[in-house]
Amino acid sequence: MKVLFERNVACTMRDGVTLRANLFRPEEGDGYPVVLTRLPYGKDTSFAYLLLDPVRLAEAGYMVVIQDVRGCFASEGVYGGFYQEFDDGYDTVEWASKLPGSNGKVGMYGASYFGFTQWAAAVSGHPALTTVAPTVPLDDPWDGVTFRGGALEWGTMASWYLTALALPQLARLRGREPAFPLEFVQLVNDADRLSHEGYYQLPLSEFAPLRRTGLLPDFFEEMTSNTDVRHRNRLNIRPHYATMNVSASLTGGWYDVFLHPTLVSYESLKAAGKKVRLTLGPWTHGNQGSAVGDLDFGMAANSALLNLKEDPTLRHQRWFDEELKGVGQGLEAEPPVEIFVMGINRWRLASEWPLPNTEYRPWYLHSQGNASTRSGDGTLSEVPPTAEPADEYVYNPADPVKTLGGNVLMTAAYPAGPKEQTETEMREDVLVFTSEPFAEPVEVTGPIVAKLWVQSSAKDTDFVVRLTDVHPDGSSYNLADGIVRMRHRQGQDSVAWMNPHEVYEILVDLWATSNVFLAGHRVRVQVTSSCFPRWNRNLNTGESNETTAEFITATQRVLHDSDHPSHLILPVVPLA
C-alpha cells in the first residue's frame, strides 16, 4: 500500500490558534482509523519517531498524525505548559476524527510529555478517542515528577527545563532572526555548565537561566514552588481514571523517572474496570535497549525486539488493530501484565499487578552502632532486633551524597539505571546494612517500602533509603530508592516540623522493582540523607530550601531495637 505524506497540516483550535502536524496516510481508500501523537519536542525531530514507524503503520491501514503542541516548533501560540493540553487535545481529536478518509475513531500514542497529552485528551472526554498507548507517562506533574516524598526533583526539573523546553523555544526565535539571539547563546552555555556548577546554585530561586532569559519563567516557578492544592489538581489525572472511556496499553521501566505514575495509571484503570495492559522493562526514561547503566540485560530486554518477538511498531499495531479495527491479534488470550525480571533476565507474564501470591517479608536493620560505610557492622536479616544501639552520622549539605544511577532524567554526567555503588557505600554519612548470601535464588517483584525510626538534631531534614543487589564479587547495584523530607512526612500538602532529638516513625516509598537475587548474592540497604543533585539538598534550617542559601549540619540517628524495629518490606514471589 502506497503512503502519502503531508507536512504542516493545519488544525485550528477553539481560540483561533493554528497547530500544525505531519500526516501519513494510505494513498487510496477511506475508512481508516487515526493514530495521533502530540509533542512539544518537534514533529520533524527524531523524538517524533522513537516509538513507531508512521510509514509502516500507514501501510497497515492507518492515518498517522504527528502534531506540534501549542507554542512549539511549527505550531502557533504561546506555550503554556500542561494546562493547554486538555482543550487542545479535545480540539485536535475532533479535527482528526473528521479528516477525509477517517472512520471517525482515534487512538493516541507517545512517551513522557506526550504520554500526558494522551491523558489530557482522555480527560477532555471526546467520544472519538477510543484508546491510548502511553509510554513512560506522567499523570500528575507534581507527585513523583516535580516532587518525591516532599523533596524537589531538582536534577530532573533543571535539566528538562533547560534542554527539553527552553532550548526548543529559543530555536524558534533563532529561526526568525538572522543571527543567534543572545538568550540562545547564554542558555546553551547554561546547559553545558549545569552538571558542574548549575545544579549547585543556592538559592535555587536564583537559577541563572530562569532569571536571565525570562523564558518560560511562570511555568518553571509554578512547577517548582506552587503549593495551592486546588490549582495543582487542575493537572492531576488520577481523579479521572474511573470516568475515562478509553482502553490503555502502558509501557514503563524499572529505572524510569515516571515508574510510579505508570504503575498508578495501571492500578487505577484496572480498579475502574477498564481494559488495560502493562509492560515494564529494565529501562530508563530514554533507554529501552539491553545495556542500561552498568549492566547488560540481554537481547530479549531490547524493545527493538521485545522478548525476541516484536518491535515497537508491531506492538503498537497489534494493540490498535484490536482496539480501533476490531481485528484480533491474540492479545485477549495473553495475560495483561508483562514484566522483565532482572537477575535472571527473563520476561514474565502475569494476570495482575502486584503479582498474585506475593508475600511481603520484613528485613530488619541490625548493628552494634557502627553501620557507616560498607566496611561497618550493619547487617540485614528476617530476625527482629532486640537490644541494639542506634547508628549515627552527620549530614552536611555542603558535601551531599552524589546521585549515582537510579530513576533519574538528568544530564549525561548523571546517567540513569543500575550503577555500581562503591563510591556511595564508602562514605561515612551512609549507613549500610547487608544480608548473608542467599543459598537459593529469591525473587523480589512488587512495591517496596521502608519503615524507619529516626532522630535528628534539626527541625527539618531528609532520609534516603536505597535497595541494592550485592554480587559475589562485592559489587553492589542499585535497584530502587526513595526519600522523605521530614517537614512533609505527613504529605506534600502539610508541614510538620521535627522536635530535635525526638524519635519519629517514617515510611519511605521505594516504588517497585523486579529482581532475582541469585544464589551467592546479598540484599543491601543504604540509609543516608541526600542524593544530590537528583533531589535538592535539605538545608536543615527549617526555612525554605528553594529560596534561602544558609544551611547547618544535622546529626542523624537510625534506631533498630525491639521498640523501634526499622526494616525494609520486600515483596517475595515464587520464582518466574
Word description of this protein:
Helix content is 20%, strand content 30%. By secondary structure, the protein is α+β, with helices and mostly antiparallel strands. The protein folds into three domains: 3-135 and 237-350, Rossmann fold, CATH 3.40.50.1820; 149-232, no CATH class; 359-573, Sandwich (Jelly Rolls), CATH 2.60.120.260. The protein starts with a strand and ends with a strand. 51% of the residues are buried.
How do you describe this structure in short?
This protein is an alpha+beta fold and 576 residues long. It is built from 11 helices and 26 strands. Strand 5, helix 3 and strand 6 form a beta-alpha-beta unit.
- First-last Cα distance: 42 Å
Class derived from helix and strand content:
alpha+beta
Strand content: 25-35%
Q: What's the overall average pLDDT, rounded?
A: 93
Q: How does CATH name the architecture of the largest domain?
A: 3-Layer(aba) Sandwich
Oligomer: single chain
What is the alpha-carbon Rg in Å?
24 Å
The CATH class name of the largest domain reads Alpha Beta
CATH topology of the largest domain: Rossmann fold
- Taking pLDDT < 50 over at least 5 consecutive residues as the criterion, the unreliable ranges are none
Number of domains: 3
CATH fourth-tier homologous superfamily of the largest domain: Alpha/Beta hydrolase fold, catalytic domain
Let me know the largest β-sheet: 10 strands, mixed
User: How many distinct helices?
Assistant: 11
Give the spatial strand order of the biggest sheet. 1-2-4-3-5-6-9-10-13-14
Gross geometry: globular
Helix content: 10-25%
